[in-house]
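$ fold --in a.seq
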Amino acid sequence: MDHACAKVAAINHNKFILLGDCPVFEIIQSGGWMMIPIIICSVLAAAISGERFWTLRTSQIAPANLLGQVWGWMKNNQLDSARIKELRENSPLGRVLAAGLMNSKHGRDIMKESIQEVASHEIHDMERYLNALGTIAAVAPLMGLLGTVIGMIKVFSEIMLAGTGQAGVLAGGISEALVTTAAGLAIAIPALICHRMLQRRVDEVVVFMEQESLKLVDVLHGEREVADGPENKQAIGA
């Protein structure tokens, strides 16, 4: 053959084509009706992954200099209701810090409870659609396996009717079995990788938000002091 790396596959009507040159539509068609839910899963996985990677940008969820900005307002006596409203509209971390500031006069425990209440809501929003993405990663190879089983059932049915001498008749079922398996794995692998990456990103953001909110609680209740470093970006132990 001229193309040594191409693999020859049999399809319906005993035609042979090179997989490397096969149009996508013909490959999908050879997989049978099980390719429809597999394709739907691929579209959903791509949409969820793209939306979550865009939404869960660290600069938008938990800006690194946000707590330092609050320190500046506190030192300059500029922390009023307008600043708290601005902070609440800034980002999820801003809403967590704003909840703590609004309840800072009610004691440390009440302040921490208000922070935890808002933080739990923000974490729920950050994890939106991740369960669906994980489900797709788990279900896609199972649908591919189901397509394989259906294809092999067709193969054995044809063997019972026509015997083993009609290779062209059996090619359709074998093709369907192989294509659906490959398609299911091709969707499940990147979906699983994206799910793990996004879950890791959420975990890192949650840890950072927890650290920043604890610094705020400790400073407002006298257990820490605001550092005098550039732009007052962090707090140090008392």
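$ fold --in b.seq
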Amino acid sequence: MNSIVRGMLVITLVGGARPAAAQSIHDYAAWLAMMSTPYGTLPPVVTRRMAGQSAGIVAGSTFELRYGHFALDNESDAVHIGGVGARFGGLGLVAGYEGCSGCDGSLMLGADYEGVVVQQMLTGNGARTLFVLGLRPSVGFGRSTGSGPDISSIALAVDMPISVAVPVGTTARMVPFIAPGYGVGALRGAGDSESGTRGSIAFGAALVDLAPGLGINLSWRKVFLDQAPTTIGVALSFDR
């Protein structure tokens, strides 16, 4: 295999998991594109806005260390993704690398912007629990590396994160969330291109301000496709 994109394509289309009757090559192309960009491979991190910071406040920056993992067939086909990210208010940026055993890998870049649609304090329990509904459009790019053909991918998507920030102790907050999404993905390489659309769901939780400015995240993302794997991600975030 000369690239991670080609590797996934061979395993999913040639290795026996061919499209179901309700799925086309366009569905597979969209899934592969999303899974070759940060959108599908680095599940979401709980942001300050998801944890209750007002969108009207001028926020400082946040630095993120992120890791993702999924297995196409079994652990011998496991794909590992490492990334570093930064947030400046509502704007998020991420760069990462995706690789597996026996493949050359792929470089990835992504950006998103998070807006707050609804922010509401939930009363009645005395705990100052905060409900936040957001909207997060994103764009991601991927590019294969190594000696094989150059294959590029792009994914445009929008998520609607729904989170609840629950105080824990004196300063920390537990923030579970769920984020349905929908996007378009496109692959281009060897003089050909394919594109399609896919829905997704992400969910997870973070412990924010366990120490001042420190967040610990655990999350999953599933880009919908028959028999496709789910990505699990962990991350550390540091506020300035």
